Amino acid sequence: MADVTRWVIWGSSGHGKVVAEAIGLRGGLVELLVDNDPLATPCVPSVPLRTGEAGLREWLDTDARPGRCAAIAIGGARGADRLQIAALLRGLGVALPAVVHPSSSVSGSARIGAGSHVLAGAVIAADAMLGEATIVNHGAVVDHECTLGHGVHVAPGAVLCGCIRVEDHAMVGAGATVLPRLRIGRGAVVGAGAVVTRDVPDGAVVAGNPARAIGKGKQ
Predict the structure, then answer these.
(1) Residue 25: in which H helix or E strand, if any?
(2) Considering the domain boundaries, does residue 1 fall inside one?
């Protein structure tokens, strides 16, 4: 994570709490929360909360100091939403460094994309590559030479064995296992606890052991 101290978190929910904690453990200071829901409440006590783009712009106009960064705390199969918000934040001059929890294990040869989160206990192995706004959640494993696209979410406890490709906006559910050298298609969803033994097509929803198609998601 970049050596910065001043942060905005977009998303005032449970994932926002997790990201705020990781930022704090790296010496960062969360100055503002933003959420699109006007009924949202602050996920971090004493930190102000604004609503949506308009609220963020208004707040930035009152404090023009440079060097502010942001984290997008929107989990689940909402990778396209994370990427859209990332583009907005960049347009406002806000940086998007990766948030890497200090208890995670990240290989020196791995590459972590802008705006991504690697959370407590996660493992990113040798030559793995994460795209932008990708989440590798608590205790998840992304083994050697895996490539994750933009807006991917690997949920808690999921295991991606070596040489797997996960395309943009896909989600691998909690506790799922994906066997080596497979492809998870764009916008696909792998259900919690599934064992994936063959490629998953774009937009498919799979579940079970072995995983089988049960529906269609968003591409």
Answers:
(1) helix 14-25
(2) no
| Annotated catalytic residue, options 117, 144, 150, 153 | 144
Could you report how far apart the first and last alpha carbons of the chain are, in Å? 30
Task: Determine the structural domain holding residue 155 and report its residue range.
Answer: 99-207
- Could you read off the pLDDT of 72-111 as tens digits, one per residue? 999 988 999 999 999 999 999 999 999 999 999 999 999 9
Question: Residue 91's CB: how many other CB atoms inside 10 A?
Answer: 9
Contacts of 98 (CB under 8 A, 6+ apart): 1, 112, 113, 114, 115, 116, 117, 118
**144 has catalytic annotation:** yes
For 164-190, the pLDDT digits (tens) are 999 999 999 999 999 999 999 999 999
For residues 135 and 164, state if they share a domain: yes
Cβ neighbours of residue 109 closer than 8 Å, sequence gap 6 or more = 126, 127
Tell me the residue length of the chain: 219
Pairing of strands 111-112, 129-130: parallel
Instruction: Please give the order of strands across the beta sheet that includes 6-10.
Output: 49-51, 29-35, 6-10, 69-72
Q: Which of 155, 212, 148 is nearest to 186 (CA)?
A: 148
Q: Could you tell me if 136 and 57 lie in one domain?
A: no
Q: For residues 163 and 180, state if they share a domain.
A: yes
